[in-house]
Design brief:
four-stranded parallel β-sheet, alpha/beta, lipid-binding, lipid binding, DegV_domain_contain, six-stranded mixed β-sheet, DegV, 10 helices, 2 domains, Hypothetical Protein Tm841, Chain: A,domain 3, EDD domain protein, DegV family, 276 residues, Rossmann fold, 39% helix
């Protein structure tokens, strides 16, 4: 018996990378409302059950690792699908990751290196617990419309050129710091990531420079993603951080609905040694 990891498109895993690790990705959905605005929906129970059924083929254990329940109801449908598969004799372990973006994607990659669901879930939890996601958006109204941030944060972010650096976690989206001006906010985005990786870009106590994996996300501008990756890599070298890999990928369509055009994100995750 071996392990197959199933995640969702919020993990922002490049298809070739997911395929190379045998990870099945279930898409989150986008749709247009009557007023023309875009909205999103979780995968249906039947879609998840089909994915788990394919993952369990040949007697494999299945680890279903999904976007934080504070951001989507996917994990709720995943549990219903797992219950359906249990009646068929398949073993599916569902884990609400408490994460999104590359924090979820890199956790899925770490889990896929394990040979059973118990060890895979432990690796995923460790990866998420030690990961940080930082991101910037050009217009907070998209997050506000989707209920991802409160009215006060949206108002502050729209006033006088203030750009909040945001993060996600089990509780949803929070503010890391408020920065005035787009260029300065981008520099602080990189600085936050460098500090999370054990670098010296910000003052105050910092964690030791243990090896990390990075992810860089963009919404609609691949050139902006490449530029952010290059600047981030240079900053990490200058600060003495130890970077094992950088994954660059666009945000998935459902995430783009809530982030809006021009958003940029960075994930810092631990580099976990492959299990023996």
């Amino acid at each position: 018996m071996s392990l197959t990891v199933v995640t969702d498109s919020a993990a922002c895993l490049p298809p070739a990378l997911a395929d190379a690790h045998g990870i099945i990705v279930v898409p989150l959905h986008t749709m247009e409302e009557d007023d023309g605005a875009a909205t999103t929906a979780r995968p249906a129970v039947a879609e998840l059950a089909d994915a788990y059924r394919a993952a369990a083929a040949g007697g494999n254990e299945v680890l279903a690792l999904h976007i934080a329940s504070a951001l989507s109801g996917t994990a709720d449908n995943a549990r219903l699908a797992a219950h359906e598969l249990a009646a068929e004799g398949a073993k599916v372990t569902v884990l609400d990751s408490g994460a999104s973006g590359g924090a979820l994607g890199l956790a899925a990659l770490a889990a896929a290196e394990a040979d059973d669901a118990r060890r895979g879930a432990a690796r995923a939890r460790e990866s998420v617990a030690r990961s940080r996601l930082f991101f910037l958006v050009q217009d907070l109204s998209h997050l506000r419309r989707g209920g991802r941030i409160d009215r006060t944060t949206a108002f502050a972010g729209g006033a006088l050129g203030i750009r909040p650096i945001l993060t996600t976690g089990p509780e949803g989206i929070g503010v890391v710091e408020m920065v005035r001006g787009a260029a300065r906010a981008r520099r602080h985005l990189i600085a936050q990531a460098v500090r999370a990786a054990g670098g010296t870009a910000l003052t105050g106590p910092r964690p030791p420079a243990a090896p990390v994996r990075l992810a860089v996300h963009y919404c609609d501008d691949p050139a902006a993603g490449r530029a952010l990756e290059n600047d981030l890599a240079d900053a990490m070298v200058e600060a003495g951080a130890v970077v094992e890999s950088i994954m660059r990928s666009p945000a998935d369509p459902a995430s783009r609905v809530h982030l809006g055009p021009g958003a940029l994100g960075i994930v810092v995750a631990p580099h976990l040694e492959p299990p023996r």
